[in-house]
Recover the amino acids of this structure.
């Protein structure tokens, strides 16, 4: 049992340059955003769930799924707008209209349809039970990562073993779940706060849809899971 008031916010703009209308495009016959809504509602830690959007069709789909919608002003829905602006606007609206003040804000992008409810709960639990003021989901990698400097490739960690199994793991931030102390979100205007912890997600949970190819990949993964062990568990 989480001893905190936790607000989940699904941030879903209507505009998208890479894939127009991607947040509501069908994924195996269901609007993309609905996967996030269904998973969030299955979470045991979210006490409240809202969608922040500037788009009437996204609003209609969200409300039909039984989720409240915060109408996002155009100024917070531009390509250059920061997610934090939409989050703070949403909690301001809830404070003004319902006197609702969350302790924790969980940011859920609608482009991660394979995230699990368990991952949401683990991120919230880590935030509440630790000294962190923010928690981010990550995935591990044994890739040999480096940077190119004046044409030279320089490894981030020198002298790593050639065998993948022997390498020191690195961790990559995914956009799957961000859990942030609400006061710190207001103070720092960042979902990452100042004391950041991490929870490791499964690789498939971190699959993020931003291109047409991403849709093909995620659909293939979902079809594969549907043919084994009764399907993918959210």
């Amino acid at each position: 049992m989480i001893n905190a008031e936790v607000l989940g916010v699904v941030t879903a703009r209507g505009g998208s340059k890479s894939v127009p209308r991607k947040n509501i495009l069908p994924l195996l016959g269901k609007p993309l955003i609905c996967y996030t809504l269904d998973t969030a509602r299955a979470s045991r830690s979210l006490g409240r769930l809202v969608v922040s959007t500037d788009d009437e069709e996204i609003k209609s789909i969200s409300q039909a799924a039984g989720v409240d919608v915060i109408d996002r002003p155009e100024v917070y829905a531009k390509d250059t707008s920061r997610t934090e602006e939409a989050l703070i606007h949403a909690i301001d609206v809830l404070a003004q209209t319902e006197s609702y003040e969350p302790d924790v804000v969980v940011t859920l992008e609608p482009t991660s349809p394979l995230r699990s409810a368990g991952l949401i709960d683990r991120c919230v639990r880590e935030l509440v039970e630790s000294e962190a003021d923010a928690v981010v989901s990550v995935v591990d990698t044994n890739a040999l990562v480096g940077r190119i400097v004046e044409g030279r490739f320089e490894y981030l960690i020198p002298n790593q073993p050639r065998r993948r199994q022997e390498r020191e793991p690195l961790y990559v931030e995914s956009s799957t779940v961000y859990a942030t102390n609400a006061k710190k979100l207001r103070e720092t205007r960042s979902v990452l706060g100042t004391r950041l912890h991490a929870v490791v997600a499964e690789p498939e949970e971190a699959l993020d849809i931003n291109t047409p190819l991403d849709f093909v990949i995620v659909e293939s993964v979902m079809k594969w899971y549907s043919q084994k062990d009764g399907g993918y568990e959210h």
